[in-house]
Design a protein that fits this description.
about 110 residues; alpha+beta; four-stranded antiparallel beta sheet; two-stranded antiparallel ribbon; 6 strands; about 25% helix; flat
Length: about 110
């Protein structure tokens, strides 16, 4: 098994308390479905970001699209991790995407 980082973009908090509760239940159900393959449920990001270049200069904001959160899972392959990512509740949000990165074994 390999580790995969699921990097979330878009999505966000639902506008009403009832929708927020439904979304939290969806996250709980998804995490339960992942079972022991869930390494780190992750967290949403605050929106505060800085970019550091190889030359050491620092700029406000991300490199590319702003990420909104992450999770780390175990899976047998990139394809298997992508299949799990398709069920991620973040995809219920507006303009949401999940980028799946395979972590190198070190």
């Amino acid at each position: 098994m390999a580790k995969f980082v699921l990097l979330y973009s878009g999505g966000g908090m639902a506008p009403t308390k009832a929708e927020q509760e439904m979304l939290l239940q969806a996250w709980g159900a998804w995490f339960a479905q992942l079972g022991p393959n869930l390494v780190d449920g992750g967290s949403p990001f605050t929106g505060q970001a800085k970019s550091v270049s190889s030359g050491g200069s620092v700029s406000d904001g991300p490199v590319g699209m702003m990420a909104t959160g992450y999770s780390i899972i175990n899976a047998d392959s990139l394809e298997a991790a992508v299949e799990e990512a398709k069920n991620c509740p973040v995809l219920q949000g507006d303009n949401a995407r999940v980028t799946v990165y395979e972590a190198a074994m070190m």
